[in-house]
Amino acid sequence: SELVEHARARSPFYKKHFKDVPRIITLSDFQHAPFLEKRHVLENTPPDSADLLTSKVQRGIYFASGGSTGQPKYIFYDQHEYDHTCRMLAFTLEAAGLSGDDVIANLFIAGNLWSSWVRGQEVTSENEAISVPVGSNLPIKDIAGYLEDFKVTTVIGLPSFLVKLAEFAKANKAKYNLVVKKIFYGGEYVGEEMVKFFKSVFPGVDVRSAGYATADAGVVGFQCPVCVKGEHHLFAWSQFIEFVDQDTMAPVKEGDVGELVVTCLSKKHMPVIRYRVGDLGRWLMKPCACGRKEPMFEILGRCDDRIHVGGAHLFVNDIQNALGKVPELSFNFQAVIDKKGHRDTLKVRVEVKDVSSLPRARQSADLLWREIESHCEDLHESVRMKWLDKPEIEVLKPNTIERVLRTGKIRKVIDKRIKV
User: Fold this and answer.
1) pLDDT for the residue numbered 60
2) pLDDT tens profile 222-274
3) What whole-number distance in Å separates Cα of residue 223 and Cα of residue 229?
4) Whole-angstrom Cα distance, residue 256 to residue 279?
5) What span, in angstroms and rounded, lies between the C-alpha atoms of 243 and 249?
6) Closest alpha carbon to 1 in 219, 217, 240
7) Low-confidence residues of the chain, pLDDT below 50?
8) Residue 93 belongs to what H/E stretch?
9) Which of 74, 231, 275, 382 qualifies as a FRET site for 288, CA 20 to 30 Å off?
10) 358-367, long-range: CB within 8 Å, 24+ apart, which pairs?
């Protein structure tokens, strides 16, 4: 209630956004307040507008947030909020197992108003581990050299780059002696097959989330050593989250899957209230074996990564897990949905790990299709029932799929059925 009144009184955007919202007295009142959409952030933040802000910009830091959409949003934290976020991230890494015995290499991308690398450096200064600020802008052989020279035990970075590093380490294991024992990832989804790949390259490695966070809302959740996959503890004293039905936008029953909506209770300079972050998740209705009392939730993937095609529903995660079963294919892929006449079509474009594998592209494509079928019964049934033609698998040489220039990410889903 206090946060809504603060935003309404001081932010030109929220003054209009909440003009029909009565004073918040009950949880039900709050659940009727309008959502904060990504377009609202794009349209009401610097440099074009400051309407989302509640006071003058001073003593703080700007970040850009755009993920794989390619259109960045500019986010401002005042210094107090930024310090608070860094302390939460430091706690996150400690809770996940980082200790004074570790040497940690920050392998996030530096520059372009990218928050992860800068925060990563701030966070390591809050921990007891020794920090090696490598980044991922160097040639991969130089990065591997630093990891070996400084006996790095822990790396933190984007999964797509960490996979590239692991592939290089596997191909050059006779040349480099890497002792990576812990991998912390952020910014992209990591599936079971990717974890298995990391463990095959670095035996016994512990793979954990570096925290569930967004540039807009800050740090939402953390993993303890007991958490698996997308399970996180909630920073309940700093964040309020809801799960809503994607169609009706009404609250789902506790434990049911819904779209995640975040309200940051500690961010007053640029309030984030009922923000649709674009992820699916659910409450976990069980206590954690670690003994912590913070509520637990699970992240299940991006809402806009759920593909609806030819009567089938599948997730980008399904394709990623299938890729992990095909040795010659990388995790760099893109699903393209289109129309052929009145029928949907689906194409999966995927890069090989090494150009020498291209002569066996047909065999790799066939194997990938079999794995996708086994991971997605829905898609198998649509093809069997002839509601959808068998998806085309296009096998490409490395670095063929276009990357978003600012982030280096691949747009995982291209829907050409929608004409803008």
Assistant:
1) 79
2) 999 999 888 999 999 999 999 998 778 899 999 998 989 999 998 899 999 99
3) 10
4) 14
5) 9
6) 240
7) 67-70, 420
8) helix 79-95
9) 275
10) 358/395, 358/397, 360/328, 361/395, 362/395, 364/326, 364/328, 364/329, 364/395, 365/393, 365/394, 365/395, 366/393, 367/325, 367/326
Nearest CA-CA partner of 32 in 254, 283, 250 = 250
- Token pair recorded at residue 41: 């952030």
Which position has the token pair 């401002």?
76
- What pLDDT does 348 receive? 94
pLDDT given for residue 117 in this prediction = 72
Cis peptide bond prior to 295, omega within 30° of 0:
no
Q: What is the pLDDT at residue 289?
A: 94
Q: Which residues of 395-417 are buried (b: 16+ CB within 10 A; e: fewer)?
A: bbeeeebeebebbbbbbbbeeee
Q: Alpha helix (H) ranges present in 267-414?
A: 316-323, 361-375, 377-384
318 contacts: CB under 8 Å, gap ≥ 6: 372, 375, 376, 379
Q: H helices within 150-286, ranges in order?
A: 159-171, 192-201
Name the residue with tokens 């609250």: 251
Give residue 67's pLDDT: 44
Per-residue pLDDT at 260: 94
Predicted confidence at residue 85, as pLDDT, reads: 86
* Amino acid symbol at 355: V
Question: Which residue is it, tokens 């898609």?
Answer: 379
CB–CB of 309/337 below 8 Å? Answer: yes
Task: Give the per-residue pLDDT at 420.
Answer: 35
> Distance between CA 132 and CA 120 in Å, rounded?
11
Give the pLDDT confidence score for residue 206 in this predicted structure.
94
pLDDT of residue 70: 47
Size of the chain, expressed as the number of residues it contains: 420
Can you tell me the distance from the alpha carbon of 314 to that of 331, in angstroms, rounded to the nearest whole number?
Answer: 17
For residue 337, the cross-strand partners are 346, 415
pLDDT confidence of residue 69: 44
Q: Among 355, 307, 373, 313, which residue's Cα sits nearest to residue 334? A: 307
**Between β-strands 154-157 and 182-185, what pairing exists: parallel, antiparallel or unpaired?**
parallel
Query: H-type helices in 204-243, by residue range?
Result: none
Provide the 10 A C-beta neighbour count for residue 324: 18
